[in-house]
Design brief:
Low-confidence stretches: 279-300
Largest sheet: 9 strands, parallel
Distance between the termini: 46 Å
Number of strands: 17
Number of domains: 2
Radius of gyration: 25 Å
Shape: globular
Structural class: alpha/beta
Strand content: 15-25%
Number of helices: 16
CATH superfamily of the largest domain: Divalent-metal-dependent TIM barrel enzymes
Oligomer: single chain
CATH class of the largest domain: Alpha Beta
């Protein structure tokens, strides 16, 4: 692990083999299989899994024989509804095990104040919210101080979907009110699924981060989960979470943080998904389809199949934006889906499809335009090719999103515009700043006559 800074270690969660809540997901996988594969992959440690022994005398030899350490283990806390003294007694056995195994942190997940008797099977809209963050933060601080004094363990608070600290403002309210005894577990996947950039936690609470879970999120699946108001467990079964690099999360900020902040601790790779359906190739994705929920059956949000021409710098930027759209905007009438990509050769296109996550690829842009599955043709090719490609796409009845400039001559641009109007398709040039909130507000202010007639703009 020479690529990691000194004091930083890499572990993997057993969730990649056996789910802690859904017993049928990997429930028949022996613990030995998990540990053997984790060790052979080069991981230095694992977190505690559902099927692991809860006795240090039994667990230690299993890990030692494979050169693995125990990174930490989840504790289901209830400080949202009970006092710190009661919580201490409930946590003793778990804390004793972690301390005996040489752990430095205890992962705390809040399981009180959740929806119904089976909260992870409830629609996500039924999540309960906390009113008294200050009182809750005080109890967490008390408990965290005891945990450190009694067992030498730092409390790593896990923000989590369907729990009282899901959204950024909820997490911030707790940590603003809590003492320095309380540490933060940063989970990249849960932040993305909650609709905020995890880098905000680094910026605001970087010095409180004591444990890191590296999880990715499939934005299109997550958007479907939100649209159907499905449950957390339904989302897990559908594949809303995945391993880093297989979804929409950008891991560059966490890499910069780990390298430059002096962080000391574990990076835990986590993929809370069905191990039997793990996607091996993004072009053959088993997770396509509706997210089932008993009350709504097969309700689905429309998918907008994107056909991208060009995989250069702008092509990569467009693909990334489409992939993130369902994560950042929850009420989209249609969710972009990376359907097909074209490039100058079949080899370049196939490589781009694999890297970006497109279903199909072709070395001939004309095949993309003709494909009946394509809804929108996105043109990021060299400028001189925009005219021919756009006219072909319009003639095929496709909507067109074209990088700027629209064409290399005014006459060609006018011809493209006239063709689109005649065909009745939607078109847009990638002047994306016109849709930023600041630009749209400025337009409203100008239209309302609040500042008169602008005669010059600089920005």
């Amino acid at each position: 692990m020479d690529f990691l800074p000194e004091g930083v270690r890499l572990a993997v969660s057993p969730l990649s083999w056996t789910n802690d809540v859904l017993a049928d997901l990997g429930g028949d996988t022996p613990v030995e299989t998990c540990l053997n594969e984790a060790a052979s992959a080069g991981y230095q440690g694992v977190e505690l899994g559902r099927l692991f022994p809860r006795d240090a005398a039994a667990l230690r030899p299993m890990l030692d024989a494979r050169g693995l350490s125990l990174a930490s283990g989840w504790y289901s806390g209830e400080l949202a509804v009970r006092d710190a003294v009661t919580e201490r007694e409930a946590a003793r056995d778990h804390a004793s095990l972690l301390a005996a195994m040489g752990c430095k942190v205890m992962v705390y997940g809040e399981v009180a104040m959740m929806a119904g008797d089976a909260p992870l099977d409830a629609p996500m809209s039924q999540r309960l919210r906390m009113g008294d963050s200050a009182g809750y933060a005080a109890r967490l601080t008390d408990f965290a101080g005891w945990l450190m004094g009694e067992y030498g363990l730092t409390l790593a608070y896990h923000h989590h979907l369907m729990m009282v600290a899901e959204e950024f403002d909820e997490i911030a309210a707790i940590f603003d009110a809590a003492g320095r005894e309380l540490g933060l577990l940063l989970d990249t996947g849960h932040a993305a699924a909650a609709g905020f950039d995890y880098a905000r936690l680094i910026d605001r609470f970087g010095d409180r981060i004591v444990h890191i879970h590296l999880k990715d999120m499939r934005a299109d699946v997550m958007a479907q989960v939100r649209a159907d108001d499905a449950s957390f467990n339904a989302g897990v079964r559908a594949g809303m979470f995945t391993v880093p690099g297989d979804g929409a999360v950008d891991f560059a900020p966490i890499a910069r943080f780990v390298r430059g902040s002096g962080y000391q601790g574990w990076l835990v790779i986590e993929a809370e998904q069905d191990p039997a359906l793990t996607r091996r190739d993004p072009r053959h994705d088993p997770y396509r389809g509706p997210i089932s929920r008993p009350e709504q059956g097969d309700a689905m949000t429309k998918r907008l199949n994107i056909g991208l021409i060009g995989s250069g710098f702008m092509g990569q930027a467009h693909a990334d934006a489409f992939r993130r759209a369902g994560m950042l905007y929850r009420d989209l009438p249609a969710v972009p889906h990376l359907y097909m990509i074209a490039d100058a050769t079949p080899e370049l296109a196939a490589d781009a499809a694999s890297r970006f996550g497109f279903e199909k690829s072709t070395g001939d842009w004309r095949e993309l335009v003709k494909d009946p599955g394509v809804d929108v043709v996105d043109i990021t090719s060299p400028n001189a090719m925009h005219h021919e490609m756009a006219l072909a796409a319009i003639a095929a009845g496709k909507h067109v999103y074209c990088e700027k400039p629209l064409s290399v001559t005014v006459a060609e641009a006018e011809e493209m515009t006239a063709a689109a109007r005649a065909k009745g398709v939607k078109t847009m040039v990638a002047f994306n700043n016109v849709k930023t909130p600041a630009a749209m507000l400025a337009r409203q202010i100008i239209d309302a006559g609040e500042i008169g007639t602008p005669i010059r703009f600089r920005g």
